[in-house]
Amino acid sequence: MTTATTAQDSHHRSKATTELQHAAIRFAGDSGDGMQLAGTQFTNTSAVFGNDVSTLPDFPAEIRAPAGTLAGVSGFQINFSSHPIHTPGDQVDALIAMNPAALRTNIKDLIDGGILIVNTDEFTATNLKLAKFDQNPLESGELKPYRVYKVPITKHTLEAVVPAGLGSKESARCRNFYALGLVFWLFDRPLDTTLNWIHSKFGKVPAVAEANTLALKAGYNFGETAELFPVRYKVNRARLAPGRYRNLTGNQALAIGLITAARKAGKALFYGSYPITPASDILHELSANKNFDVRTFQAEDEIAAICATIGAAYAGAISVTGTSGPGVALKQEAIGLAVMTELPLVIVNVQRGGPSTGLPTKTEQADLWQAILGRNGECPVPVIAAQSPADCFHAAIEAVRIAVRFMTPVILLTDGYLANGSEPWRIMASGEIAPIEVRHAQEAADFQPYRRDELGARPWAIPGTPGLEHRIGGLEKQDVTGNVNYEPENHQRMVNLRAEKVANVATQIPEQEVFGDESGELLLVSWGGTYGSVRTACERMREAGHSVSHMHLRWLNPMPGNVEQLLRRFRRVLVCELNMGQLQFMLQGRFCIPCVGLHKVQGRPFIVGEIVSRIEELLGGR
Amino acid sequence: MTTATTAQDSHHRSKATTELQHAAIRFAGDSGDGMQLAGTQFTNTSAVFGNDVSTLPDFPAEIRAPAGTLAGVSGFQINFSSHPIHTPGDQVDALIAMNPAALRTNIKDLIDGGILIVNTDEFTATNLKLAKFDQNPLESGELKPYRVYKVPITKHTLEAVVPAGLGSKESARCRNFYALGLVFWLFDRPLDTTLNWIHSKFGKVPAVAEANTLALKAGYNFGETAELFPVRYKVNRARLAPGRYRNLTGNQALAIGLITAARKAGKALFYGSYPITPASDILHELSANKNFDVRTFQAEDEIAAICATIGAAYAGAISVTGTSGPGVALKQEAIGLAVMTELPLVIVNVQRGGPSTGLPTKTEQADLWQAILGRNGECPVPVIAAQSPADCFHAAIEAVRIAVRFMTPVILLTDGYLANGSEPWRIMASGEIAPIEVRHAQEAADFQPYRRDELGARPWAIPGTPGLEHRIGGLEKQDVTGNVNYEPENHQRMVNLRAEKVANVATQIPEQEVFGDESGELLLVSWGGTYGSVRTACERMREAGHSVSHMHLRWLNPMPGNVEQLLRRFRRVLVCELNMGQLQFMLQGRFCIPCVGLHKVQGRPFIVGEIVSRIEELLGGR
Amino acid sequence: MSQVKTLTVKDFKSDQEVRWCPGCGDYAILNQMQKVFAELGLSRENTVFVSGIGCSSRFPYYMSTYGVHGIHGRAPAIATGVKIANPGLNVWVITGDGDGLSIGGNHLLHTIRRNVNLKIILFNNRIYGLTKGQYSPTSEFGKKTKSTPFGSIDYPMHPISVAIGAEVTFVARCVDVDVKYQQYVLKRAAEHQGTAFVEIYQDCNVYNHEAFDYASDRQVRDDHVLYLEHGKPMIFGKERNKGIRLNGTHPEVVELGSGITADDLLIHDERAPEPTLAYLLSRMRHPEFPEPMGVYRAIQLPTYENLLVDQIAAVSQKLGPRSLDDLFNEGDTWVVD
Amino acid sequence: MSQVKTLTVKDFKSDQEVRWCPGCGDYAILNQMQKVFAELGLSRENTVFVSGIGCSSRFPYYMSTYGVHGIHGRAPAIATGVKIANPGLNVWVITGDGDGLSIGGNHLLHTIRRNVNLKIILFNNRIYGLTKGQYSPTSEFGKKTKSTPFGSIDYPMHPISVAIGAEVTFVARCVDVDVKYQQYVLKRAAEHQGTAFVEIYQDCNVYNHEAFDYASDRQVRDDHVLYLEHGKPMIFGKERNKGIRLNGTHPEVVELGSGITADDLLIHDERAPEPTLAYLLSRMRHPEFPEPMGVYRAIQLPTYENLLVDQIAAVSQKLGPRSLDDLFNEGDTWVVD
Ligand SMILES: Cc1ncc(C[n+]2csc(CCOP(=O)(O)OP(=O)(O)O)c2C)c(N)n1
Ligand SMILES: Cc1ncc(C[n+]2csc(CCOP(=O)(O)OP(=O)(O)O)c2C)c(N)n1
Ligand code: SF4
Ligand code: SF4
Ligand SMILES: [Mg+2]
Ligand SMILES: [Mg+2]
After folding, report:
1. Is A621 exposed, middle or buried (0-12, 13-18, 19+ CB in 10 A)?
2. Looking at CA atoms only, how far is residue A496 from chain B in angstroms?
3. Most buried of the four, A548, B308, C154, D8, by CB within 10 Å?
4. Do B394 and B304 sit in the same domain of this protein?
5. What pLDDT does residue A179 have?
6. What digits encode the pLDDT tens for the residues A88-103?
7. Mutation test residue for ligand 3: of C17, C18, C24, C61, the one with most atoms within 8 Å of CB
8. Which has the minimum average pLDDT: B242-246, C233-237, D181-185?
9. How many domains does chain A have?
10. What does the DSSP assignment read for B216-236?
11. Whether residues B60 and B123 fall in one domain
12. Distances in Å between the alpha carbon of B305 and those of A333, B39, D71?
């Protein structure tokens, strides 16, 4: 709520309305409190209303922890604004804490003077103890810095939903809708998007639909009538590019992108996967869209998943396998096979906190080395990273396009933050997306499975084509013929040819762009899901008059041809990553340009402030 | 046979003997011809005689190709000398070609004027065709550059072994011994080592023992009596350090090293493995030594092998798993678990040609990135590489020592060349090897599984110890307690602690040494099995008066603390590797020191000449 | 494995907060395990619980014994290493239907055939719990889950049949809520020397609630399960009026009375050297048949780790005491002086 | 899969030099395969041979069809992908006892239970050939190999028992050198709709020579094998004077004559819905029993890829024709203008 102007909104009868450029709020409660749902509804309403939005869900570890515990807290943050934004916000302007545990784990992210709504009914002795409060914070005075609103949300909800006639457990479950209604009121949002959703979701269980509706409205009306809130807030529509929008999580966008790519190639989509957090939703999303000739295969493990994907690629499908870091570890041997057999497939890695099982529900960018350097032998693979939830759509299409054009596996990196976070996507017309040209070899005369085209790609000859019968495999291939070959010079030649082919991808991707000046004091470099926070930091510094530019790398391997030249135009280079310096190491390894790094491995995205501080430190240290 | 002085050897009655400083010879024939055996016998004899020796076996692909084909050729090269040598030699001074295919594939490595012994009996029309000779090379004149000795080896052998009374197939099989006998004569070697071997190997089948003995002697006597050879050669004893010696292949040395390490730790040795070329011999060797409380476990796959190894480490054994590159790919997820659980184990990678199945029987060094950078998450592991066959013994002990001291998995890299190549090892007294101190936690009071010592190692508390019951796993651990923990700051702290621990290994390894001057024009950098050829090239250049030094890295992660400083003392740095520049990239990535590279990916070791040429090019290009 | 001071149930509880969903069947199994450990007088320090990944695989954290929470599917392999390194330990494997049968199927199979002395407890909830509700290898054909919104087209696999395919030496089944019987089965497993494989029907309260109601609901279960008793005819039913008769190599359900008596029924023989009877029982499935509970098979065969230890002893005996120096000096050697 | 111009055996030979050791049993199998393909009039272009790694796994290089020489153990998974992408293809999997049962055991199991329409031919030579002679999961207990110089302590696994544990729809066995019978078995496999699993006893001339002499040597084999014939009593022996009788759930060998006739013998029923008989047969092992050759089991069940295709069709029908634009515009949308 940085810049606020006060105004009176006419169509509401009471209370002052303060207009804000943006606001970040967070719903936090127990895993059983339905916070993800409340957050999603708030997001959709805001998006439909016309704000730019960016979200950050924060799940607890996979299993539901006992109710009321710190481990069981689930949060959902929404940043919504009247101008374009790239991040869910560093801190929040309003926090809804449904129990003491949620209060404890989230309060540090609320700005001083921020709004804190608490469900007083849950501040029982037991819950306070579970949250490790010695004293009730509502009474201890420790919440003084905030504007605290104590609401008996559970009680109000139970009262409100009586007409629906549900049992008390089911009635209490509606409390997230009550809280949502209250927050809707506070930020002057319409209820209809959520009402429609309730109707379509619970239409078949009228009592539940009614109860949720009643709770939602009760919360809204409480805001309207209670004397609690002196003011309400309004965040106007953003000036987004005209068009129809929808809100997409990264995993949704990725799934839709894959379907689009396959349709654009005129082929079936094969998706072989083994469930793993945070990638599973891609499988779920695709499984629900079988009517687009999507063939999902839930394999017995990650190795089977990629091997089936290789088989499907050989047989001519657009073939994709998706997983997270530990799954990629298991797939590396088979990725080597795909490199040797030169088959087109995409390997999606939705990165999570590592090493090992690590922090499965948290985000991280520490699988870059694994993607580019992590295989046995000289085994180059193109690697692309998506930069925002909606960008997963485009990145997926691009990955498929390159895979098919170059006859190569392509690794597509996203992360837990992108996968579960969401942002508005301007819905494209399918016609805006270029077709993906697939040329299957047809001509038997003089067919050679490893004869290359001008970019180094071999032909894609698929079973069923008479006269093109050929055998491929993981042993070194003879140049041109593809027969097994152990000759020293041939091996060297093939290693070189495979490397050149991947290097040639650089000729088919856009030149690297720089945001801000093309030369100067400091270049920020980022990749993947940190795009938004780094861009925002750059914008802020530039607004403050500093010579700071931003280079966001989309293709990590190969990099666009002009990257080195751009890096050399800046006095200093700061590489910002959610790892301990993997891209930095690789830039130095390739270009011998000393860089500095901003590293964070905490299972969380950067907050803009962290980046700004680091920049200031560097600029100050001139 | 570069430098030769002529002398007369008194105890032989006939023919002139030329004294040489060293000679390289190669036995080459069909896979069925027993060339590996002949080569090994020549090696052992030369070693026992007192030469320094270095060998290079060259196997065909795993399956036996049909007799007489080019794919079926098997070779064994021995370099033996009267001064210390580091490589099997670039070219050979004498070639024994048992059939046309062996001639075709090996002749290019024979020096001009070199000795070529051919088994004329195999130069049949069929065999010539299989070897793709249009004309019989023995008649075409194409062998003019060489001193060709045509010997009907098969026929002579059959005649010689008649008294043993074997069938004709079995009789013919003795022809490698005939050839060996002839070469023994030519290089003035005693027969007793081989005779002893025949006796101990075939003692139970007297007819075979007799036949082989007869063949061996017949070959020797043919040299003595035939008018074919105008001169014989002699390579005097080398001035090796005094002591008892034996010849060891890398895999043998590694196995013995592991047994030694376990004994020195006073513990059982657990070795979990799944067979794979070229690592299988380690498993074989260890399985034959169960009496040293060696517990070998041939697992169902590489994943089971390393997981069992992790279990064994948890339970308190010295625990090792061995494989090659594709197997390491499969083990990476579990290596991550070992990093997170901080258990001591050693992962041996006998590198082979890649990517994918690649060239399974050939050597390469292209798994360095995989070892250091190839896992999901921030997942540091110490990495050491052996530098010669016998050095595998020492490297194995060192790897175990560091694993146990730091409670960490350690990757030990060797390669196909080291694994199968051999060199004399000065047999140590077991007392020369320092004990490996193992401290198992005992004290229950205030026990914390993740409390660290001054080097960052956590305690090794093993099941069976009352009061130390604790649970570990792959989820992020809380500092000190080791409980599951998802807190952001804790995760960052643990990532840092794990990195620091591995960095601390540098405090326990020797400072980096440089061969030659400590500063100058050019520094050669190498690692692993290329030690010998790079060192030899350096020696040659230095002898020729050039300012060239050599830095051989034994620990690749972490590197000794003084590496950067040393690198900066040279005007240029040339990194020589059997890959496309993996170490070079890493040196640049860490130190931003631009290096140049000499790369070779041909399934073969460097030849010294290649390195010398590259150095000359660089020095010339000043 | 027993010790002087006998421990109580509480002694087997670790200090970690148990974190399964309220109502999860895993709680019951944890409680029974702790009870059985106390009752059998087992020790904490000589016990290791090893698991993979899944809800069920958090189990080791809640036992006050040694424990390894491994990686997905690999618990049997880790446990095998523990056992080989120290055959004296009491090693239990906890796994799920996804962990043990999907990604980990092969390790399970090989551990079983090697007869490593491990107790393997498979929590079968017919779903992937931890990853929030995809179908598993034991999910029913046609099942709708997150990854099969239109119904699964995979035929399920049956853990006991698979284990018998690998010729397991001990195999049994029970249901999470039938706590007394579960204790009996766990004790039998604990006492077995060799791989003991136990399938427990476990309710996933959140993603597959009541999947096993037919076998756990007191109202109906007696008609849907058959309690196996060694040497006894196979009788079942609330009224104990039904039985299993053999027809060639096929079982059939018969009503007792009107000419059919217990003598006509199949007699259970858990010690049959041939596993065919056990296989036949594993094919009896709801709703066509009552599902057998209890011990299908329990035979004695030398365990892997005993064979290993014996071999090492025999080899050491045969080769005599050899020092490292003997090892170093093996083969052809020569002296340079 | 058939085509107008019928192909000859030669048409199925690729241009690659066959590189097995002289005398290897793999040659015989390659020849029979080519023969069977010619005789059944199968096409080259619609056939894909997929293999893992091992001597046997070089097989695809020698067939003039499409082929993938995969990575170790993963052939069934690769083949499943091929089949899903193009269900019209005729897909064969070639694997070894190491490739298919050791590292690849799990993929085999899951492919079988899904009933993917693949023909899986397991070359069982009871050894790791390609890596030069380590014991495999089918090697006999006590076997001395490079990795078990003092004898193996692993109990072997039995491929057919394992396959039946996973409830395979078609399973059969034959011997490499018994070429006529092998052709019969391969043809039966070719004709099966669903996973057909065939174990072939294959001689590894170099590392495990004559391991199957009892079943391949013309002098003795008739007393050591039992040729299964659907609907026929189980009679065997050079004189055809011995048979298999059922005793409870156990088979026993009986001599015909002196009161025992063919009517007393077990009748083979490859179509039995219950796989128990097939399991029982898989447990009959040399030297106690004659080892059954031929088709143990052959039942019909919808194949995985047909179920998949049908489901896609049904879903498409149900949801109606939907364009990419429909997909893009799903859910809550709003317009900015
Ligand atoms: C290599 C790897 N792949 C996938 C996962 C994700 N994963 C964790 S548990 C699980 C399945 C759990 O199902 P089950 O074994 O039945 O256990 P449950 O949660 O039902 O007790 C999966 C797929 C993982 N952790 N590691
Ligand atoms: C990941 C991996 N591990 C190990 C190997 C080594 N390897 C190749 S084939 C093989 C076993 C071969 O045995 P089998 O499947 O019985 O085939 P055969 O050679 O006997 O026909 C092994 C262990 C490999 N190629 N890849
Ligand atoms: S998700 Fe299911 S199996 Fe997992 S803890 Fe919850 S109820 Fe239990
Ligand atoms: S090693 Fe054995 S299986 Fe392999 S090709 Fe030779 S004989 Fe055949
Ligand atoms: Mg489950
Ligand atoms: Mg085999």
Report:
1. exposed
2. 9
3. B308
4. yes
5. 96
6. 999 999 999 999 999 9
7. C24
8. B242-246
9. 3
10. HHHHHHHHHH-SS-SEEEEEP
11. yes
12. 16, 33, 18
- Which CATH number covers residue B417? 3.40.50.970
Interface contact C17-A65, CB threshold 8 A:
yes
The pTM of this model reads: 0.95
- The token pair at A117 is 């709504």
- Cβ of C108 closer than 6 Å to ligand 3, yes or no, is no
- Residue D153 Cα, gap to closest chain C Cα (Å): 6
pLDDT tens readout for residues B123-153: 999 999 999 999 999 999 999 999 999 999 9
**What's the Cα-to-Cα distance from A253 to each of A76, A256, A427, A462, A488, rounded to whole Å?**
19, 5, 11, 30, 46
Q: Is residue A160 domain-shared with residue A308, that is, in the same domain?
A: no
Domain contains A470: no
B291 domain residue, yes or no:
yes
Amino acid sitting at position A101 = A
Please check the confidence at residue B231 and state whether its pLDDT lies above 90.
Answer: no
Q: Kindly state the tokens that stand for B298.
A: 């041939």
Alpha helices in C40-178 (DSSP H): 75-85, 97-98, 105-114, 159-165
Containing B389, the helix (H) or strand (E) segment is none
Whether C36 contacts B458, CB under 8 Å: no
CB D283 within 8 A of CB D172: no
β-pairing verdict for A52-58 and B520-527: unpaired
Is the per-residue pLDDT at A5 higher than 80? no
Mean pLDDT of D133-160: 98
Q: What is the dihedral of CA D325, D327, D331, D335, to 10 degrees?
A: -20
Contact indicator for B582, B553 with CB cutoff of 8 Å: no
User: B261-271, pLDDT tens digit by residue?
Assistant: 999 999 999 99
Per-residue b or e along A198-208, where b marks 16 or more CB atoms closer than 10 Å to that residue's CB: beeebeeeebb
What domains can you pick out in chain C, each with its CATH number?
A: 9-219+294-305 (3.40.50.970)
Does an H or E element contain D290, and which?
A: none
C-alpha span between D67 and D47 (Å, rounded): 8
The residue to mutate among C206, C208, C209, C210, having the most atoms of ligand 3 within 8 angstroms of its beta carbon, is C206
Same-domain pairing of B143 and B88: yes
Closest by alpha carbon to B395, among B575, B264, B257?
Answer: B257
CB of D109 within 8 Å of a chain C CB? The answer is yes
Cα separation of B92 and B104, whole Å?
Answer: 15
The pLDDT assigned to B67 comes to 86
Q: Is the pLDDT of residue B82 over 90?
A: yes
A454: number of Cβ within 10 Å: 7
Tokens describing residue C41: 């007088």
The burial class, CB within 10 Å (0-12 / 13-18 / 19+), for B31 is: buried
A364 neighbors A352 (Cβ within 8 angstroms): yes
Structure tokens that stand for B249 in this block: 């292949």
Range of the domain at A584: 520-619
| ipTM value for the complex | 0.96
Select from D114, D157, D276 the Cβ nearest to the Cβ of C280. D276
Question: In this structure, are residues A2 and A22 in contact, taking their beta carbons and an 8 Å threshold?
Answer: yes
Q: Do A546 and A404 share a structural domain?
A: no
